[in-house]
Amino acid sequence: MRIEHLRERSDLGVISAGALKSLGVSNPWRRCAAGGPWQRMYPGVVLLHNGPPTPDQHLTAALLRAGPGAVVTGAEACRRHGLPARGQEIHLLVPGSVRGSGRLIAERVYPVPPAVDVGGFPVVSCARAVVDACRRLRSADEATALVAAAIQKGRCSPSDLAAEARVNRYGTALVRAVLEELGRAESVAERDARRLSRRIRLTTAHWNVTLAGADGVIIGRPDAWYDDVGLAWKIDSRAFHYGPRDYERTLARNSRYAAAGILVVQTLPTRLRDNPEAVAAELRKAHRAAAARPRPPVRIVEVS
Fold this sequence. Notes:
With 304 residues, the chain is an alpha+beta fold. The protein has three domains: 3-53, no CATH class; 67-182, no CATH class; 188-301, VSR Endonuclease (Endonuclease, Chain A), CATH 3.40.960.10. The protein is built from 13 helices and 15 strands. The chain has helices spanning 3-9, 17-22, 55-66, 74-80, 126-134, 140-152, 158-167, 173-182, 188-200, 238-241, 246-259, 269-274, 276-291, and strands spanning 14-16, 39-42, 45-47, 71-73, 90-94, 104-108, 115-118, 121-124, 206-207, 210-213, 218-220, 224-226, 231-235, 263-267, 298-301. Strands 9-12-13-14 form a four-stranded mixed beta sheet, with helices on both faces. The chain has a three-stranded antiparallel beta sheet with strand order 1-3-2. It has a three-stranded mixed beta sheet with strand order 4-5-6.
């Protein structure tokens, strides 16, 4: 059979060896040998060219190997949900016994969780994907960055993640610890900011409170607020806060702070991580400057 006809019967150029044999290709593995026109992706799965597979071809081959009912989770599912997850493995949840191979991790579960169609692939919910991805991480910072990205991009809520971690507790100690930490700090950067603030001992900082002017109009919600002197500290992460409309929102926020007479220290997470002493010096200097001028008529308010 002509290669064009074989590609028509394939899915993105991926096809099973059994299907090839039924189409008249008696020994497909011969064409997968070194220098051949095809390549073996997994046992029983062939890619009808010998160049680098695309991410979609990798995933198609893994799903074909896993069989009916398999769904995508972990880092690959996170990327399909638009999150910056590390890891090249393809983690599938399967209803039967399938042995993993190469990049494929096949985990048998019952029942297989529901999936949604994302670009033509069956992908678990974002919360399940994040929890499963964190199960394979060893770094608390990497897990925190992934969880914070999922929350701040609006893909899922902390309660969604906590529920998944409760239902699927095996290997979730890290993500549960991260969620507990993020109850007090919404990102690695804010966690580091809290530690730095405690160390330099300015005055007591209020974290993630909402500020309003004398007229009751909401001004903003800084990461840290030094109420006695009217100083705000914002940890502005490009990765988590600078989306398509976030730059305009940041400018508008800073304008509101300036109009209310609030001094603001803005810090990038990378600078907080790599040069904390310089950040500490800036905070001390800003705190002295804020204390030297009349405190603006700003108050902390509760928002329902």
